[in-house]
Amino acid sequence: MCGITGIFDLRERRTPGRALLEAMNQTQFHRGPDEGGVHLEPGVGLAHRRLSIIDLSGGQQPLFNEDESVVVTYNGEIYNFGELTTELKQAGHTFRTHCDTEVIVHAWEQWGEACVERFRGMFAFAVWDRNRETLFLARDRLGIKPLYYGRLPDGQLIFASELKALMAHPELPRDIDPCAVEEYFAYGYIPEPRSIFKSVHKLPPGHTLTLRRGQKSIPDPREYWDVPFAGLTINESEAADELVERLREAVRIRLEAEVPLGSFLSGGVDSSAVVAMMAGLSDEPVRTCAIGFDDPAYDESDYARQVAERYRTNHYVEQVDPDHFNLLDRLGEMYDEPFADSSALPTYRVCELAKRQVTVALSGDGGDENLAGYRRYRHHLAEERLRGLMPADLRRPLFGALARVYPKADWAPRMFRAKATFQALARDSVQGYFQGVAILRDELRGRLFSPGFRRELQGYDAVEVLRRHARRAPSDHPLSLVQYLDMKTYLPGDILTKVDRASMAHALEVRVPILDHKLVEWMSGLPPELKLHGAEGKYVFKKALEPYLPSDVLYRKKRGFSVPVAEWFRGPLRERMEQQVLGETMADTGVFDMDYLSTLVGQHVSGARDHSPALWALLMFDNFMQRLQA
User: What pLDDT is attached to residue 318?
Assistant: First the structure.
């Protein structure tokens, strides 16, 4: 994969400084250690770091069309570039390389902004068209590849794959966005389009941004694709057969590379399915990578081994020390803005292992969102059925009162932990789901922030992120709705961000066949009961894979890629956590009620409550603030 960055002067034709652009580009060296390139002309500067995958001897960027009036800097893979090349040659375009990058400049010439609708793959790119005095930014449909952009006070726009490249520009305003902080402590990440800074945005998945010289303001991005959720008429057997064929095709087009290629193999359904398809498409043994833990509560390597043995892969396993919290500071450097998913730690380790064997790895990400694999979907549908039994005017005051009087009982068996359920039933569907995914629920965030910071928020609530997407949802089925919400928020903001930064930290390209947009479109239309059937998530997927995978892999309890954060904060990380969460840096922000932070810490270390998600989020926020002030 690669890293891109650039500067565009909206007002005039000031040529960016080469040293500055190279410094911004160099912050992303890890994304592309093979080569670097810079293009400068009046009013525009484009830069690129390359990780060579296809056409190793050609394809250097920035890359031009025939008369050098159009130039691109690009991060990603366009898997249908062969067909597009043929079509564009027939239309009269001349190609000088055999790489997918050159397709972009000619596609822009041929189809303009609609070019992105022709691309099948993962990408973030910038095209500069000198004749039209236009800069065109684009991001892939699902948000696999990142793209940040921001406007400087002097009228210049800067963009990059990672926020750190923008932060290398001395004129970037670094005022923190209070709404982004509220969203971070609700979701554990900052959903698109916000970033931690008021001056910087993320281009949302499936959007483009067209900028022309002389514009006084940055226009709103344009959406070119959305998950359709268009209902299919199909039975279970037909769906199972077609799902395997579509997955096989999505895997097949991702096997082209001129460098070593393999796959992650966690032992879960999704990565195991990808490996099974790869094995059927390859004459050589598939290279698979997995990590193991000493603690059986977290270790899934035995399931991965079963799949590896079945398909006779060249399987690489590395036992990871569960106390790998020595990576805490490294995480802050990788993610640039606050990011509170602790599974970033094992993700970093499995990418580190994979890079020792391959340069490209396929992953199983996206299966849970597309095929309803998360347990929270089952809980949400159960709550929806209960909501439907009583009018909202009666339900809200009744369950709201029960929630207020029922004690919080995190320590008790789930059947006795009714407080959260009562709270959810007192809310509407979107707000109820929000409380289920929030790492700090409303009442905790209400106490977390100082009075001064709450005034800055002016009543803003992070649930508005979900409400905004829910208003545009293409389906009102309760399962399809929450799948759609996750595809718009959790998938790009957490899952894909986590994998992109962890893999790019090791110059490893990760391809995601289950997020092939044609496959996603088709899966979204499957009847909801084929995705969540009773208590069984990914129902039709598992049925389809029964001839390919062991029953133990298909039907075991889902674990997730977790680490023992709660135990760390009562043991080896206790002192560090207390020093950072209750330290001067956090107090000086003015964001927090420090007395309440002391309460959170005290309740957790005593064992009275498990506040590990909140404390991890606070620790990561402190890491960010310390780097910001350095």
Answer: 85
Residue 329, pLDDT score: 87
Q: pLDDT tens-digit profile of 427-482?
A: 889 999 999 999 999 989 999 999 999 999 999 999 999 999 999 999 999 999 99
Distance CA 292, CA 355 (A): 17
Strands (E), 294-388: 314-320, 360-362
Distance from C-alpha of 267 to C-alpha of 299, rounded to nearest angstrom: 10
595-598-602-608 Cα dihedral, nearest 10 degrees:
60
Render pLDDT for 404-428 as a digit per residue (tens, 0 to 9): 776 665 544 444 456 667 777 778 8
Please check whether residue 143 is in contact with residue 491, taking contact to mean a CB–CB distance below 8 angstroms: yes
In this prediction, residue 423 carries a pLDDT of 72
Angle between helices 178-187 and 612-629 (to 10 degrees): 140
Burial pattern 502-536, b for ≥16 Cβ within 10 A else e, equals bbbbbbbbbbbbbbbbebbbbbbbbbbebbbbeee
Cα 412 from chain centroid (whole Å): 33
What is 3-223's CATH topology? Answer: Glutamine Phosphoribosylpyrophosphate, subunit 1, domain 1 (3.60.20)
| Whether the bond into 527 is cis, omega within 30 of 0 | no
Tokens describing residue 511: 């391809």
In this structure, are residues 286 and 313 in contact, taking their beta carbons and an 8 Å threshold? Answer: yes
Amino acid 56: pLDDT: 72
Entry field: residues in the chain: 630
Which single residue is written with the structure tokens 């064992």? Answer: 607
- Contact (CB, 8 A) for 151 and 197: no
pLDDT, position 1:
63
- pLDDT band of 400, cuts 50, 70, 90: low
**Do 236-372+490-555 and 3-223 fall under one CATH topology?**
no
Comparing 197 with 331, which gets the higher pLDDT? Answer: 197
Helix (H, G, I), strand (E, B) or coil at 565: helix
Whether the link from the prior residue into 62 is cis, omega within 30° of 0, is yes
Strand pairing of 261-264 and 156-160? unpaired
- Between 291-300, 432-441, 444-453, 597-606, the lowest mean confidence (pLDDT) is in 291-300
C-alpha span between 629 and 607 (Å, rounded): 33
In words, the CATH class of domain 236-372+490-555 is alpha beta
Distances (CA, A) of 252 to 101, 117, 304: 20, 21, 21
| Average pLDDT of the chain, as a whole number | 93
> What is the strand order of the sheet 121-129 is part of?
63-64, 70-78, 121-129, 134-139, 207-212, 222-223
Would you kindly state where each structural domain of the chain is located, as residue ranges? Answer: 3-223, 236-372+490-555, 564-630
Q: Which of 612, 588, 610 is nearest to 325 (CA)?
A: 612
Question: What is the Cα–Cα distance from 45 to 4, expressed in whole angstroms?
Answer: 11
At 39, list the tokens.
């293009």
